[in-house]
Amino acid sequence: QVQLVESGGDLVQAGGSLRLSCAASGMSISIYTMGWYRQPPGKQRELVATITNGGLTIYADSVKGRFTISRDNAKNTVYLQMNSLKPEDTAVYYCNARFITRAYWGQGTQVTVSS
Questions:
Q1: What is the DSSP string of the chain?
Q2: Residue 23 in contact with residue 76, Cβ under 8 Å?
Q3: What is the arrangement of strands in the sheet containing 67-72, beginning at the earlier edge strand?
């Protein structure tokens, strides 16, 4: 059974940092494009960042220069380092794994940034 389990969400003040982790089980992430998405309160889910199995990264304009996505295939884990957090970063953050027609989602972790 494939599982993606996010952790690291918290309440933090504006300007602070958090590191999210997504641990995969029941699969090897090495062939997957891994991504982080978020859903702010009352809004639709949106892309934050993705990283291919070759290490190529894409970021939403709103997080460029502040967030960094990385992966450790040996640990079967993907990370999202979030710096200079803003209140508008408040959302539930979801991990995603994608390979051709396969796609998996985690259950989400809450990030709240206070002003």
A1: --EEEEE---EEETT--EEEEEEEESS-GGGSEEEEEEE-TTS--EEEEEE-TT--EEE-TTTTTTEEEEEETTTTEEEEEE-S--GGG-EEEEEEEEETTEEEE---EEEEEE-
A2: yes
A3: 3-7, 18-25, 77-82, 67-72
Tens digit of pLDDT for each residue in 14-40?
999 999 999 999 999 999 999 999 999
For range 95-101, the mean pLDDT = 96
In whole angstroms, what is the distance from residue 33 CA to residue 92 CA?
Answer: 20
- Predicted local confidence at residue 64, as pLDDT: 98
Question: What is the Cα–Cα distance from 61 to 108, expressed in whole angstroms?
Answer: 22
Q: What is the mean pLDDT of the chain?
A: 97
The residue whose two tokens read 């640990």 is 75
Cβ 27 vs Cβ 13: under 8 Å: no
